[in-house]
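[#protein-structures] MJ: dropping YkgJ family cysteine cluster protein here for a structure pass
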Amino acid sequence: MPQTVIPIDNIIPIETVTNAPEPVTCANCQACCCQLEVRIVTDTGVPFHYIEYDKWGSEVMKRADDGWCQALDRNTLMCSIYENRPLVCREFEMASDECITERDLAGI
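AK: finished. structure tokens for YkgJ family cysteine cluster protein:
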């Protein structure tokens, strides 16, 4: 049987296209959740100098003038009080739907 020759001009190159985002890890986290207000609802041992009170009198994590949590180590983007972090921070899972939403809002 004779082979059909397809002219090279008619070949469409194959490209691999993926919409899958890069998995969130400690190395690429960017700590955008550390810009959220964190209410302290249980005693986990948060040092007092990281606590302030909101307008309703609830304890919240103190934030810097730029809105980032005071306990965030700016060099490593890791929590400086990790073992004593608030319950809300303990329950906020890396790569969860909430995490991905915050990353999207931050443009990450």
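MJ: nice. The helical segments are 87-91, 97-106.
AK: one more thing. The longest helix spans residues 97-106.
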